[in-house]
């Protein structure tokens, strides 16, 4: 009987100890839950910190002389904020530096995408600094021709759409063309001075082009275009200037393509194309592809005055629709070939242009292609509905 009582006492003590431990554990759990609830309540009461800006750092290199540029900058900053991007970098071009130095500074400051805001001259300058960097160049077209944008199917009228491409488009490696003036032409008095810009000798440095470079009629037309008229009527001003050169002389050119023997021809103009689409729905070089590693050359000639030019214009318009005229002895014609390197010689010197920027007069010129050297932001191809 004593043993049973002893066991009962021990069992009772163990039960009381277990109950006590359980109460302690329950109390601790309640305290922990109370503390956690207090922390959660404090977190809910505290103001929520917004997530920091994410995404790429954009830099804009802008030509301040373009119409609407004053309103564009705050619109771009607001759009970047709406996209939760970091505040963009903004650089303005100058007469002394049309964009090369500004682009290099943007890259040095960590820009992931550099957007050229302006016309073809600004695009060329930004591209010159972007070549070989592996970072993409975007486009916000603000010029008259907007040649590269047209050839990449980037809108030249809808800036929101162009911004979307610069931010969300696909990166595309395209070819770059280079033109070097091997021998500039002296002025008429032989001095080489640049007092008369229409007779100025061309700069002998290497000049980048992304669309078309040319020597002859096309360059003379661009050089003679009135800047004020161009600001009012756009690219049509180029054609109005061209009428004044319809009766100009044909040029005797010595042309060397790659390692082929030189050929002498009488032409109005010779153009080297990286791509071939121009304003006004004109496709000057229909077979030119911007990333095929080779340039397309167009040799243009007319005889017979206005009739020759009319036939030439018809040739250009028809080839844009894939129609060619192979009849012999045409008085207005455009002939095509392809090459990676081109050398041109004009004994008396002639105007040279790259993407609509006139370089001056030259006697000897050479061009070459730099395949896939530039990354550009291009529209994402739309999937076929079929």
From TrEMBL:
Gene3D superfamilies: 2.60.200.40, Probable inorganic polyphosphate/atp-NAD kinase, domain 1 (3.40.50.10330). The chain crosses the membrane at residues 6-26. Keywords: Kinase, Membrane, Transferase, Transmembrane, Transmembrane helix. GO terms for cellular component: cytosol. One of its GO terms (molecular function) is methylglyoxal synthase activity. Signal peptide: none annotated. InterPro entries: ATP-NAD_kinase_N, Diacylglycerol_kinase_cat_dom, Methylgl_synth, NAD/diacylglycerol_kinase_sf, YegS/DAGK_C. GO terms for biological process: methylglyoxal biosynthetic process. The keyword Membrane applies. Residues 53-183 form the DAGKc domain. This is Diacylglycerol kinase family enzyme.
């Amino acid at each position: 009987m004593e043993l049973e009582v002893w066991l009962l006492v021990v069992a009772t003590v163990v039960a009381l100890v277990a109950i006590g431990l359980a109460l302690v554990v329950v109390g601790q759990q309640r305290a922990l839950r109370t503390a956690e609830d207090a922390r959660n309540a404090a977190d809910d009461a505290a103001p929520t910190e917004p997530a920091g800006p994410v995404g790429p750092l954009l830099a804009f290199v802008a030509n301040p002389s373009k119409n609407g540029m004053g309103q564009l900058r705050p619109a771009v900053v607001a759009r970047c904020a709406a996209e939760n991007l970091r505040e963009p970098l903004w650089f303005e071009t100058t007469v002394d530096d049309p964009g090369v130095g500004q682009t290099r500074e943007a890259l040095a400051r960590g820009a992931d995408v550099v957007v050229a805001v302006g016309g073809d001259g600004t695009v060329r300058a930004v591209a010159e600094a972007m070549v070989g960097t592996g970072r993409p160049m975007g486009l916000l077209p603000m010029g008259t021709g907007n040649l590269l944008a047209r050839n990449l199917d980037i809108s030249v009228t809808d800036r929101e759409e162009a911004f979307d491409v610069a931010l969300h488009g696909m990166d595309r490696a395209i070819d770059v063309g280079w033109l070097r003036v091997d021998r500039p032409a002296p002025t008429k008095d032989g001095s080489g001075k640049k007092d008369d810009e229409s007779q100025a000798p061309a700069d002998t440095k290497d000049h980048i082009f992304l669309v078309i470079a040319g020597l002859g009629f096309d360059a003379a037309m661009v050089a003679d275009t009135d800047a004020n008229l161009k600001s009012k009527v756009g690219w049509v001003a180029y054609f109005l200037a061209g009428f004044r050169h319809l009766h100009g002389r044909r040029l005797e050119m010595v042309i060397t393509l790659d390692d082929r023997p030189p050929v002498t021809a009488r032409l109005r103009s010779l153009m080297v194309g990286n791509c071939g689409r121009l304003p006004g729905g004109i496709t000057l070089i229909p077979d030119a592809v911007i990333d095929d590693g080779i340039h397309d050359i167009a040799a243009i000639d007319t005889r017979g005055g206005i009739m020759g030019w009319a036939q030439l214009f018809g040739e250009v318009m028809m080839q844009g629709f894939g129609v060619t005229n192979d009849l012999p002895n045409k008085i207005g014609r455009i002939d095509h070939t392809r090459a990676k390197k081109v050398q041109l010689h004009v004994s008396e010197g002639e105007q040279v242009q790259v993407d609509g920027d006139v370089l001056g007069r030259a006697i000897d010129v050479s061009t070459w292609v730099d395949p896939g050297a530039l990354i550009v932001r291009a529209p994402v191809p739309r999937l076929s509905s079929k």
